[in-house]
Amino acid sequence: MVDDEKKINLIMALRRQGITDQRVLAAIERVPRDLFVPETFARHAYDDSALPIECGQTISQPYVVAFMSQALEVGERDKILEIGTGSGYQAAVLSHLCRRVYTIERYRTLLAEAQKCFDTLGITNVTAMAGDGTRGWPEQEPFDRIIVTAAAPVIPNILIDQLKIGGIMVIPVGKETDVQTLVRIMKHEDRVEETELMPVRFVPLVEGVAREL
Ligand code: SAH
Question: Which residue CA neighbors atom 23 of ligand 1 most closely?
């Protein structure tokens, strides 16, 4: 099967699993996931599974990317912050749904690879930075939406502070070794509403910029 056919099959599978947002499905259709996975795994690029990338990290499972994108209820004018660029795939999907994506990664190696993919695809509304995402991106706040693609032991208050009133954040919460819970946070004027969405497994959110050889 060629990649285009595999991609259509993946999209039909996502639809069957409850991904109904047409904009999200169309964004996934537009992004060639094969570009974001290491060459050795290219033939699995359209399997609905997470795959290893460099620096011991992972590119998320397409279903999880679609589910998180849908849960964010992204608007066309939104400014989104992503913590954990990884391969850049989730950021590329979001780039087709909103005005601008700011994404932070603690491994420079991963960031450079992701930036190459954005350049290859002509994606110009993603701004990527090497840094510690646990502090958010103070120069660019507030954000309409925040997506964290690494598991945090607790929800970082700094990130809630950088979210607009009426804004939504989606974040996996829990220890590295346990099954974590994907949580959706809605910031109201006077309170923060938390909804548990589903069990997930992500690599951990680690403080500080990574030391690389
Ligand atoms: N969104 C990614 C998934 C990447 S996995 C994708 O679509 O491929 C999670 C990523 O979060 C890893 O690359 C890891 O290095 C990064 N990460 C973990 N803690 C971080 C932190 N404090 N700041 C920025 N990135 C972090």
Answer: 133
